[in-house]
Design brief:
- The structure holds two protein chains of two kinds.
- Chain A is an alpha+beta fold.
- Chain A folds into two domains: 225 residues, PmbA/TldD superfamily (PmbA/TldD fold, 2-Layer Sandwich); 240 residues, no CATH class.
- Chain A is built from ten helices and 23 strands.
- In chain A, the strands form five sheets. In chain A, strands 1, 2, 3, 4, 5, 6, 7 and 8 form an eight-stranded mixed β-sheet that branches. In chain A, strands 9-16-17-19-23 form a five-stranded mixed beta barrel.
- In chain A, strand 11 and strand 12 form a beta hairpin.
- The model of chain A has no long low-confidence stretch (mean pLDDT 97).
- By secondary structure, chain B is an alpha+beta fold.
- Chain B has two domains: 203 residues, PmbA/TldD fold (2-Layer Sandwich), CATH 3.30.2290.10; 230 residues, no CATH class.
- Helices cover 23% and strands 40% of the residues of chain B.
- Chain B is built from ten helices and 17 strands.
- In chain B, helix 4 runs parallel beside helix 5.
- The mean pLDDT of chain B is 96.
- The chains are: A alpha+beta, B alpha+beta.
- Chains A and B meet through strand 2, strand 3, helix 2, helix 3 and strand 16 of A and strand 1, strand 2, strand 3, helix 2 and helix 4 of B.
- Strand 2 of chain A pairs parallel with strand 3 of chain B.
């Protein structure tokens, strides 16, 4: 691969690029899903290609191809330069990347058991066992389960001398139990919403989930939800489970601190952000709230050696005891503020450019326990597992729904309620946080979308249960 | 682009290499280019060659899939082997009957040379003209201008074969001031027919008209939804239950409604992959010819779309709405059309004493699929309607509303339709006046 990389860099510079970076990726994916006792999907996918991004005439150009041959790489490199020169027709200023130390090295995701070494039969049997466990519950309509694994080998080099190689491995799995009754559909997901939890690591991540053991409980809850009372409209205290906290962090903090969005670069699609540079130092949340972007968290989906601009993974404080202090950034966006990149430029594949993306945006754990938070709450709701999500284009006005909630009365969990929703305005909501628990885990989000053309990327969120006061729930 | 001859040879070589009882080959690929702009300057500009070979192997009632973008002989053979290997590991699916047999496919034109040949310089000059106009109005322009040429071939060992080539050009712009924004979009097969300047003026006009927005209390209002908003709403309706699989799993809102009136007579919604007004495609990813399917006929819930698997389960014929395998979500309508009415802007506004004009929705997601409840935000031009006239811009609102509830109170349908494009789909819809629409909260901007 290094020969191809060198050829692409040489061709780019010969065509007139003043900066060039090249990424070759080879991706293997295996996925198995089971629905109601039948293998619904069993696929293997392989994809490889090269992407060349250049600056020429002070502007960006990018071209990509799956054909790894010398002449095709020359063609793509020249095309990237041609595109950059076209970009320069509508530029206001030359692209500035800022300084960046040359990087060399190799990174591999640590794991115990290579997920590709586990037999298909074993994977299918694990899912069928979970499927049987869910369908053992009377009244369940649909049982779904899945496992999947990804291995990406990537080589990155740039014309400033960086050359890094990485092998990133992800493994995940999960179950979803769905119960149906006339106008009502209720589902319970384990261990996370969107069908699964995933992390960087090996098959040990799936084994630790004990999917079959969780199956009956999820199925029973889905069935029970059908006849549970609706979540009433109210303004109350909420205690939120870690998986929903992960999405709360994702939507209202993670996206809001992406510096490209802040600079208006995503305005036409995903929107902008209220956290503009003049807001650095303002109060974003209560003193309980500290959030960091950590590209090194064990098992996090945003964990790697270097980002897709060859910048080493690092830890960046975003919210420090409630105060907004930092951004996720790329080389170009960080340079706009006179800073160094936070190592958060990521591309979803060889055929996409790196954008500012979340790494592992983690809510740091607090001193409470979940049990303590509930015991300390006179009246409120305990909300668990995301079902719906929406936030405005400045990341202020959000509304979430969860799969299930329980009433909290006098410090104890009471009735189950269905179709719970809650909403708020970001800084007001985080400002109402008066407790974060210490039961902390990194959760995986595999459906984070951004950019045009679209890029779906996998990110992590360390999260723990947390409590918020005066929250509007049961929104209709 | 491989072209029709090379792609056919590749498909048949894969079929010949397979030892499965039945084999399906889907080859798709092409070239895509996209120029993206923000703050009135081009900041991203990309081009890619894409190709994918997808093998579905059937061994009895066992199914496996393998996908690769490597097209050399060894890689193709490996994919064929992997697909069969996957199938042999899979337990039998008692509901699987067979891959579809051959059926005559009527070609439909969806390709324009001008789109395939559109250059980075052309896109850059188009973008610059919109940015310059925005700058002249003290506004910032952002958006994208994409051109794409694609081909797809589907073949199976029963003799089914289809080849289709298409182009899509899409220009989208958001123009902003410090307290306002405006949106416009144009999509078509032919890039030369896309009026980028007009789209720019439309977005600029909205951005200028929506300056100094005032707050409006959340609550229930009559609304006029522009086609952009209607398209989003109907795309989600399709996602929430217009495919047969969701009906078979009893998750669809259509389960209890087929044959019942769910909207006024002036609402007719159908899927038609052959209509040249959209982004046509004459067959699905199983090489089954696309049928026009009425989903809502004159206000009555009429039907859902099928692929061969879901059709086999219901003892019906596929309507030609399969997505690439494996597809646990089932068949999907990718070419939605809502029948236009006779209302111009004046008629759409007529009779609204106090209501809301919505240009577009943002970040929409289902809250309750079976009840078709969505939530999302308004964006890029939200206005107050008073006594039948748009009177002033208002700050954005969050809505939490059932789609069927909204359709049930449609009072007028616009006379012109807009074609909207999102990755694989094309949706062609008019504006709607809706009697009751619930906004659940307001924003500060």
């Amino acid at each position: 691969m290094q020969d191809f990389v060198k050829r692409a860099l040489d061709s780019s510079e010969a065509a007139g690029a003043t900066f060039a970076e090249v990424r070759i990726e080879d991706r293997e994916v295996q996925g198995v899903s089971v629905k109601n006792g039948v293998v619904d999907s069993l696929l293997t996918r392989s994809s490889q290609g090269i992407g060349v991004r250049v600056i020429a005439g002070g502007a960006w150009g990018f071209a990509a191809t799956p054909n790894l041959t010398g002449p095709e790489i020359d063609r793509v490199a020249c095309l990237a330069v041609t595109i950059a020169r076209a970009s320069a027709l509508a530029k206001k200023a030359d692209v500035e990347l800022g300084g960046q130390p040359v990087q060399r090295g190799v990174y591999r995701t640590p794991f115990e058991v290579d997920p590709f070494s586990v037999s298909l039969d074993a994977k299918i049997e694990l899912l069928l066992a979970a499927d049987r466990a869910m369908r053992s519950v009377r009244g369940l309509s649909v049982a779904e389960s899945s496992v999947g694994c990804i291995r990406v080998r990537k080589t990155y080099a740039n014309s400033q001398g960086s050359l890094v190689e990485q092998e990133l491995v992800e493994t995940g799995g999960g179950i979803v139990a769905t119960a149906v009754e006339e106008e009502e559909v209720q589902q319970r997901s384990f261990p996370n919403s969107f069908g699964r939890h995933q992390g960087t690591g090996g098959w040990e991540l799936v084994e630790a989930m004990h999917l079959a053991e969780a199956g009956p409980r999820m199925a029973e809850q889905a069935v029970a939800l059908l006849s549970a009372p609706h979540c009433s409209s109210d303004t109350t205290t909420v205690v939120i489970d870690p998986t929903q906290m992960a999405l709360q962090v994702h939507e209202s903090c993670g996206h809001a601190v992406e510096l490209d969005r802040v600079l208006g670069w995503e305005a036409s699609y995903a929107g902008t952000s209220f956290l503009t540079p003049d807001k650095l130092g303002i109060r974003y949340g209560s003193e309980q709230v500290s959030i960091v972007a950590d590209g090194t968290s064990a098992t996090g989906l945003g964990t790697y050696g270097w980002d897709d601009e060859g910048v080493a993974a690092t830890v960046t404080p975003l919210i420090d005891r409630g105060i907004f202090v930092g951004y996720l950034s790329s080389r170009e966006t960080a340079a706009r503020l006179g800073n160094a990149s936070s190592g958060a430029a990521r591309a979803s594949s060889w055929n996409r450019i790196p954008l500012v993306r979340m790494t592992n945006v983690n809510l740091l754990p607090g001193d409470w326990t979940l049990e303590g938070l509930i015991a300390d709450t006179d009246r409120g709701l305990y909300l668990e597992t995301n079902r719906s999500w929406s936030i405005d284009d400045k990341r202020l006005n959000f509304q979430f729904g969860t799969e299930i909630a329980w009433e909290i009365t006098n410090g104890r969990l009471g009735r189950m309620v269905k179709n719970p929703t809650y909403g708020g305005i970001t800084p007001e909501f985080w400002g109402s946080c008066d407790g974060v628990a210490r039961e902390w885990q990194v959760w995986g989000t595999t459906n984070c979308g951004k950019g045009q053309p679209g890029q779906t990327i996998h990110v992590g969120h360390g999260a723990a249960p947390a409590r918020f006061r005066g929250v509007r729930v049961g929104i209709a | 682009m491989l072209g029709p001859d090379a792609i056919r040879r590749l498909a048949f070589s894969a079929l010949e290499a397979s030892r499965a009882d039945q084999t399906e080959v889907v080859i798709s690929g092409g070239e895509s280019a996209l120029t993206r702009f923000a703050n009135s300057t081009i900041h991203q500009n990309v081009h890619e060659v894409e190709v994918e070979l997808r093998i579905r192997a059937v061994a009895g009632k066992r199914i496996g899939v393998a996908i690769t973008n490597k097209l050399d002989e060894r890689a193709v053979r490996q994919a064929v082997t992997d697909a069969l290997e996957n199938a042999l590991h899979s337990p039998e699916d008692p509901d699987f009957r067979t891959l579809p047999g051959p059926a005559p496919i009527i070609p439909v034109s969806a390709h324009a040379r001008s789109t395939a040949a559109y250059t980075p310089e052309q896109r850059a000059r188009d973008v610059k003209s919109v940015c310059d106009r925005a700058t002249a109005e003290h506004l910032e322009a952002s958006g994208m201008w994409s051109t794409r040429e694609r081909e797809v071939a589907v073949a199976n060992s029963l003799g089914a074969y289809g080849y289709h080539t298409a182009t899509v050009a899409a220009f989208k712009a958001v123009v902003m001031s410090s307290d306002s924004s405006g949106y416009a979009e144009r999509t078509g097969v032919d890039a030369a027919q896309i009026d980028v300047a007009a789209a720019g003026e439309e977005a600029i006009g909205r951005a200028l008209r929506s300056r100094n927005p005032e707050p409006l209390e959340a609550g229930e209002y009559p609304v006029v939804l522009e086609p952009y908003a209607v398209g989003t709403m109907l795309d989600y309706l399709a996602y929430m239950g217009l495919g047969a699989r969701s009906v078979q799993e009893e998750r669809s809102f259509m389960n209890e409604l087929i044959g019942q009136r769910i909207a006024p007579e002036n609402i007719s919604l159908w899927d038609d992959g052959m209509d040249p007004a959209g982004i046509p495609m004459p067959f699905d990813f199983e090489a089954v010819p696309k049928q026009r399917v009425d989903l809502i006929r004159r206000g009555v819930a009429a039907g859902v779309v099928y692929d061969s698997y879901s059709a086999g389960k219901d003892g019906k014929e596929s309507t030609g709405h399969a997505l690439p395998s494996p597809n646990p979500a089932g068949p999907f309508p990718l070419h939605l059309y809502l029948e236009p009415g006779d209302a111009g802007e004046t008629q759409l506004l007529e009779g609204i004493r106090r209501g809301v004009w919505v240009t577009r929705f943002h970040y929409v997601n289902p809250v309750h699929s079976k009840r078709t409840i969505l939530t999302g935000m308004t964006r890029d031009g939200t206005f107050l309607i008073e006594d039948g006239e748009i009177t002033r811009p208002i700050r954005n609102l969050r809505f939490t509303q059932s789609v069927l509830g909204a359709l049930a109170t449609v009072e007028a349908v616009g006379r012109s339709r807009s074609l909207l494009h999102d990755e694989m789909s094309g949706t062609c819809v008019p504006a709607l006046r809706i009697g009751r629409f619930r906004f659940s909260s307001a924003t500060q901007f």
